[in-house]
Predict the structure.
Amino acid sequence: MIENFLVWAWKNIQKLLLWTSWIIVTVVLTFYFTNSLTGEDKSTFLPAETTHGHYQIELVCDACHTTTFDGVKQEACLECHAKELELGDDSHPPSKFNDPRNASLLQVIDAQKCITCHVEHRPDMTRKIGVTLPPDYCVYCHEDVAEDRPTHEGMPFDTCRGACHNYHDNTALYEDFLTKNLHHPDTFGQPVTIGRNFLEIYQSKPKYPIKHLTMTEHDAPENVDLEAGMDWAETSHAKAGVNCMGCHGVEEYGTWVDKPSHKACEDCHEHEVGGFLTGRHGMRLAENLSPMTTDMARLPMKKEVHKALTCVACHQAHDFSTEPRHTAVDACLGCHADDHSRAYKASSHFRLWNEELRGQMPKGSGVSCATCHLPREVVLEKGVKRTVVQHNQNLNLRPAQKMIRTVCMNCHGLGFSMDALADEELMRNNFSERPSKHIESLEMAESRIKKKPASQTMDSQKPEPVSQTMDSPENGESVATVSDTFGHPISPQPKKVEIPVTQEPESVEKATIQKIQVPVVQMLDKTKLVEKSKIPVSPEQETPVNSLGHPSTIMEELIDILGEIVDKTENSMAVEK
């Protein structure tokens, strides 16, 4: 029996080897791919390189993709970016394209979904900010822009974005803002960065009794080596009564943790930690991955530095210093080696910073790395204004024009700021000289105001209406923002604005319903429409315009007339009764 098997095996040796090899390879590959799918390293399944914004979390596939591989979830984009879009007052929200009046635009480009413009794993077609559309994509919807804005005549559509317009956050570049800031000087008088008031807020509702603690009052377990924590005694934590367990015992409910994570900091500093987890420094931690390290970075970093980016990477453990020189400059330059960072110490910004530290300039007048990239923000917390530091250092970088309102205009005029941020070489050398480029947006906005027809402005030439008065920006009061059908703000005039308010008639003459039953077909005559609906007509064109100076559609006019008919009918019925 054995002899027969050996003879058969010898004759079929090639087949046996082939089948054995196939089984071994199948088992190995099955184990490999299963381990890749369930483990942390899923790089095998990456179809291509990801963008700068997502490469840190590219191995967390389900952060963006559905578990059934049906594609990218729209909700996944909004989980990370919805708040940023809200803060920037998104100028192209999905609701604009959901509006039936704009349905025709969806036939050209489906702008309701993020992945229409941002497709991952396409490095050959990816441009700045992860956009994968052609650079002239604005033409899809704004081909006739020169009809409304003659200053744009002949401009190529691949020059819209950036220095002049931004798709989502246009808060520093839209016309209303430009016209309010036309003639600023390049630099304002003596700008000062607003100071933090965390201690004041904390003292109003402290977590621990406010008392300057000493090392003899520590509450660490007996087996803990206190030598490493000697710096704590002179810190703001010890002065505010925050003992050892205040940081080492909050993550696991009273259990000592040798090296607390950002979760311990979040117990008191939720705003700062929230921003940190949203930005490039902490986004891996937000996905429960290991911390970002300088070795992973795509930006140039100092090769000799191998640092994990946690809270203590910038705020030393136990010291947790917010001392300006270290946290605002040295911590940044200790890692970053790009041209912009390396040029900082030769810039006028660094000179001002040094003068402040030496006491030659007022506190807050210097410009550090953190001044621009970790700007101060005032938030309303339980009815109290609190100044916090925005730790999402990328929030105002993509695009750079987002920095204008929150940072640049604290010191510089709008025109100078726009020119500076449009000059890429100037940004590379850290603004060491004057801008070499000029953006004409302010001049265009000013000329547009001067050339506006009288019918498109709300001024005293119109008949005196019953009105409500809004204070202009010069009076320091808030101004109600009026938007057109596309969501763009309509520029208020720099004076008292008269907004017509419909006034109900004090008395109505007795009339019958038959007297106001006018056939709708008769109303579609343009002349009668204008006359009956009392819509002002521009002297330069026959097209009727509404009270805000915008061309009225036939539907708008018809609705106004029908509303007038209904009002008269109701009044007549009331009189008859």
Confidence is low (pLDDT under 50) at residues 457-556. Residues 40-138 form one domain. The two ends are 117 Å apart (CA to CA).
